[in-house]
Specification:
With 296 residues, the chain is of the alpha+beta class. The protein is built from 5 helices and 17 strands.
Length: 296
Amino acid sequence: MKLSGYWICCICILVLLFCSGFALADEIDPTITHVFFEKDGRPFNDSVHFTVECYGYAWKMWNGSAPEDRLAKVNHSSELVYSYSASCPSYGCTIYEPYYHAERLYVDRCDVKGQAAGTEFTIRNFSLSPLPDCTELRPFAVVNRGPDRNWTYFNGTPEYDACVNATRLEREECDQFVAICNPKTDPECGGWSIGDNTVKETPAYRTCVDRIREKRTACDAKLQPVDPATIVMWTDTDGSESPARRACELRVTLPPGTRAAESLVPAERPAHSMFAQKEGSVWCRVLNLLGMECQG
């Protein structure tokens, strides 16, 4: 297949944007993090509001390949490059910080500071990364949305892969039904070439493609459904839920002098500065996935 000048121009623009570091699409990685604050080797059961601040250098290119990025590995001025805040009402809370762009940094140190039951605390050099210990969650491979607007989840099978590959080969046979055309005299002609000829769709071509599309849709019957109860969900800022892609655990040991309040008036559910808090049921799902019992 030969590309026309129009499509070659579009591809050149996309390549230039990519090389210049422009992000055409930058996806957030839905992440749940279970946070544990401890003191003197025991759980700290009172409320904690905390901020993680990381200092270092932020890449100019998404993969750190710019000349200044390579130089910055050994010579850069350390500055605040990443931070997030959250609130925990008690020991073992869940937050929904996605650590957006946290991997695109040279980090010299991360500090943790905040208030534990009304007492200020600061922990310098807490870690060398804003990311805590994380595990990838890949419980499904395919997502479909049915007529009832509900999401359903599936894993692929060898039979599904073979079915899809067969439809791809059949799809190529539809090219025999295109018509050679002249873009100078035919307004429907242009942007598509096969060999040295400019071509366009025909009714026979569209019929062929529709038939292959139906076969491709029928391949979905060979997918393996995934039980939604086994999928750990992540809550976005607007309250909507989607499957989490990784689960993390953050453990913080509070410094000496941090004391628990003798009595605290029950407060409203605290809000994360970026993502809302949620009850501990999500953590139970994580434990259940690992084969441990949990109710909540």
